[in-house]
């Protein structure tokens, strides 16, 4: 009989039982409602073992690849370890901190042991005093290069970002936890048109995903639209322009809410610019990262313009509130 | 008799139907305000539960769920016209998927059977 591992609990799944039955019997309060695979309240993730495909029906491909499953539909064929709580952090050494302009710094880290991640996921950076902030990975996994790249927006009162920009030096030790996140490239449809839309440092995961897709031989068109409040908020412009010259199927668009239009730079809200360039999104994969309000609006707009819910990936970057004034 | 749920193709077919249905609902100015501020994916999961129920799929929603779930919308003015709109979009979705009128009428009847729950009314005699 397959065994489910959930923290310190090890429960054998009895014949005819689902994973939900077994876990509830073992005293785990798994949220559940319909018991029919419709409401998805019972969604869990297997960090070890493969849940049967039948228990993953209705989940996005990225979630399926990360081992998410619906406990009420799961009749395990092998032992499963349910992901509980956070992974333990590991040490990492700062390799470099580089100013990218637009108040963004590129932080390169070398973890103590290579991190198994997908481009577009995020890690949590831990300062020695315990302060923690999550940043998306802009790097692409590479067997020859274990460096992690983060893009950090330096905020006026940013405790972590201020420390990174002012105090952190190459050679310093930090810790990273993760990876987490379900925004990454999957190679199931190499001819599919992919649209990547980001605001601010939402560019970081999209830059990683674009390179990952190209490296995996994606053939369909990949269009990256980056938006900022002003033209000065755009960064990696030269790098992305080079990338679009190098790859026939990669296209780079940029826009700013305010400012003077220029060659290749559109002025307007990112939703309006996106609507102009992508009036019909049926059959497209859309990945949206950055400001939460823009992400929500772009998700809805993309869906209404024909993108399937299962083909829209979104990662909203929530900024920690500033410390209370003393 | 085979359920419409199975005839359509079960869970994967309902997946596709939800996209079509939810898109119609969100594009309808008469009802879209009731979906403001709701996480799209969570809402789509509920639409999936609703479509599963009305097509005779594995049981998901009860009348009580519908009553409790819509109670906060009554303050926003939810009324019969909005339920009519949703049932209309349901029919249009099924028509797009090639379902015949007789089956659509059966599904509409099931949807209408929870009207009083959705609108927080005690069961009424048909007008």
Question: What does the main sheet of chain B amount to?
Answer: none
Oligomeric assembly: heterodimer
What best-fitting shape of chain B do the alpha-carbon axes yield? globular
Looking at the overall shape, the CATH architecture of the largest domain in chain A is 3-Layer(aba) Sandwich
The gross shape of chain A turns out to be: globular
**Helix percentage of chain A:** 10-25%
Helix/strand class of chain A: alpha/beta
Helix content of chain B: 55-70%
What is the average per-residue confidence, as pLDDT of chain A, rounded to a whole number? 94
- CATH topology of the largest domain in chain A: the name is Rossmann fold
Tally of DSSP β-strands of chain A: 17
Number of domains of chain B: 1
Average of pLDDT of chain B = 88
* Number of domains as seen in the coordinates of chain A: 3
Termini separation of chain A: 59 Å
Order of helices and strands of chain B: HHHHHHH
Return the string of H and E elements of chain A. EEHEHEEEEEEEHEEHEHEEHEHE
Low-confidence stretches of chain A: none
How many helices of chain B? The count is 7
Distance between the termini of chain B: 31 Å
- Classified in CATH, the superfamily of the largest domain in chain A is Nucleotide-binding domain of ferredoxin-NADP reductase (FNR) module
């Amino acid at each position: 009989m397959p065994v489910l591992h959930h923290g310190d609990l090890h429960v054998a799944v009895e014949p005819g039982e689902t994973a939900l039955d077994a876990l509830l019997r073992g005293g785990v309060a798994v949220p559940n409602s319909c018991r029919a695979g419709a409401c998805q309240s019972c969604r869990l993730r297997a960090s070890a073992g493969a849940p049967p495909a039948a228990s993953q029906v209705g989940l996005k491909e990225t979630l399926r690849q990360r081992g998410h499953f619906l406990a009420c539909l799961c009749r395990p064929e092998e032992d499963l370890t349910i992901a509980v709580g956070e992974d333990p952090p590991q040490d990492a050494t700062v390799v470099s901190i580089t100013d990218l302009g637009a108040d963004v710094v590129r932080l390169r880290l070398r973890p103590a042991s290579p991190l198994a991640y997908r481009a577009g996921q995020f890690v949590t950076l831990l300062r020695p005093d315990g302060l923690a902030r999550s940043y998306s990975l802009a790097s692409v996994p590479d067997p020859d290069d274990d460096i992690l790249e983060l893009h950090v927006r330096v905020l006026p009162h940013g405790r972590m970002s201020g420390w990174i920009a002012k105090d952190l030096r190459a050679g310093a030790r930090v810790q990273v936890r993760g990876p987490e996140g379900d925004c990454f490239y999957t190679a199931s449809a190499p001819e599919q048109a992919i649209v990547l839309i980001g605001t601010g440092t939402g560019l970081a995961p999209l830059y990683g995903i674009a390179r990952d897709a190209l490296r995996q031989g994606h053939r369909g068109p990949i269009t990256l639209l980056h938006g900022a409040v002003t033209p000065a908020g755009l960064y990696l412009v030269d790098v992305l322009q080079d990338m679009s010259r190098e790859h026939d199927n990669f296209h780079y668009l940029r826009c700013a809410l305010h400012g003077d239009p220029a060659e290749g730079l559109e002025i307007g809200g990112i939703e309006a610019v996106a609507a102009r360039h992508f009036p019909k999104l049926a059959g497209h994969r859309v990945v949206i990262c950055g400001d939460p309000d823009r992400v929500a609006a772009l998700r809805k707009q993309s869906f209404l313009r024909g993108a399937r819910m299962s083909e829209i990936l979104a990662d909203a970057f929530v900024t920690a509130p500033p410390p209370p004034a003393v | 008799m085979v359920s419409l749920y199975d005839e359509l193709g079960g869970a994967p077919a309902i997946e596709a139907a939800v996209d079509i249905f939810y898109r119609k609902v969100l594009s309808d100015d008469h009802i879209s305000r009731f979906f403001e501020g709701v996480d799209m994916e969570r809402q789509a999961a509920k639409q999936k539960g609703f479509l599963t129920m009305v097509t005779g799929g594995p049981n998901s929603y009860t009348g009580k769920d519908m009553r409790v779930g819509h109670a906060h919308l009554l303050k926003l003015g939810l009324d019969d016209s909005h339920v009519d709109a949703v049932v209309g979009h349901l029919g249009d979705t099924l028509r797009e998927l090639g379902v015949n009128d007789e089956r659509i009428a059966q599904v509409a009847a099931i949807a209408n059977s929870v009207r009083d729950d959705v609108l927080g009314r005690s069961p009424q005699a048909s007008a």
